[in-house]
Write a structure and sequence with these properties.
alpha/beta; Rossmann fold; globular
Length: about 280
């Protein structure tokens, strides 16, 4: 049965690798969809237990619990109706893939079909029309992000989800912004600006450019919710902390849009993730 969007809202499922990923790439889109009356569901593959954080959060092995609580706080400010964890362990970003913890599997070791069936179950329950995942690069190449792309694509096939949008950033714009930030922010010595010249997606490949300026406040609040990911021991800023230090006018300018790829899209660049759906 076709839905009449004037009577019944669409359902959008945002699928991410770790708590805080939703804040970085899709929070504006999620807040906009929720504000427009659509149902928004947030699914994370892992609990983020291997994220870099200060000992204030890692003492006693409790980082995973902190990060899942932060995810719920972020979801609340974005208007998310449901959050789910697929049950996998964080694969980490180090060169060495750690052994699986007792009773759980590192996400990157999970068979794609198994993980896709778990996600497809949620897509089917929700009758989701739109699934947000990542581009094939996994953005900047994190192993769990690449697996999100693979699992999301297969889950959408299983569930028959009409639209899959791969969250990304035009890499030329990203490099320009980072170069601008170097004039007002001191990056750590290990920061490699040139690595972003190969990350995310080419501008020409982007099919959806979503205006979210009215929801920048929600995006900033979503970032603030992930306090464990703001800094590491010694006070060094991590990505979330660095972004929150951007002055508000510049922050609003930088984050006024979010970008996606739809492999099935034809025609001009769209400004609404639901445009063209029945």
């Amino acid at each position: 049965m076709l839905r009449d969007c004037r009577v019944m809202p669409y359902t959008l499922v945002a699928f991410h690798a770790h708590p805080d990923d939703e804040a970085l790439l899709t929070s504006g889109t999620m807040a906009r969809a929720a504000a427009e009356g659509h149902r928004v569901v947030l699914v994370v593959a892992t609990d983020g237990e291997l994220g870099l954080a200060s000992t204030d959060f890692t003492a006693g092995g409790g980082l995973a619990a902190h990060r899942r609580a932060e995810l719920e706080a972020s979801a609340a400010v974005l208007g998310v109706a449901r959050t789910e964890w697929l049950g996998y362990a964080d694969s980490g970003s180090g060169e060495e893939l750690l052994p699986d913890p007792p009773g759980r599997t590192r996400f990157v070791r999970a068979p794609v079909e198994e993980a896709a069936q778990r996600l497809a179950g949620i897509l089917g329950e929700e009758q989701a029309e739109v699934l947000l995942t990542y581009d094939p690069n996994g953005g900047y190449g994190h192993r769990d992000h690449v697996r999100v792309h693979e699992v999301g694509a297969r889950a959408a096939e299983i569930a028959g989800t009409p639209r899959v949008l791969e969250a990304t950033v035009p890499r030329d714009l990203l490099v320009r912004v980072l170069r601008l930030l170097t004039k007002v922010y001191r990056f750590p010595p290990e920061f490699d600006l040139s690595s972003f010249e190969r990350a995310y997606s080419a501008r020409a490949d982007i099919t959806h450019r979503i205006p979210v300026r009215r929801f920048v406040r929600a995006k900033r609040a979503s970032l603030r919710a992930h306090a464990s990911q703001s800094s590491a021991d010694g006070g060094a800023d991590r990505t979330v902390g660095m972004l929150l230090k951007i002055p508000r006018p510049l922050f609003d300018l930088v984050f006024r849009r979010e970008w996606y790829l739809d492999r099935a899209h034809t025609g001009p660049v769209a400004s609404d993730v639901f445009a063209g759906l029945p």
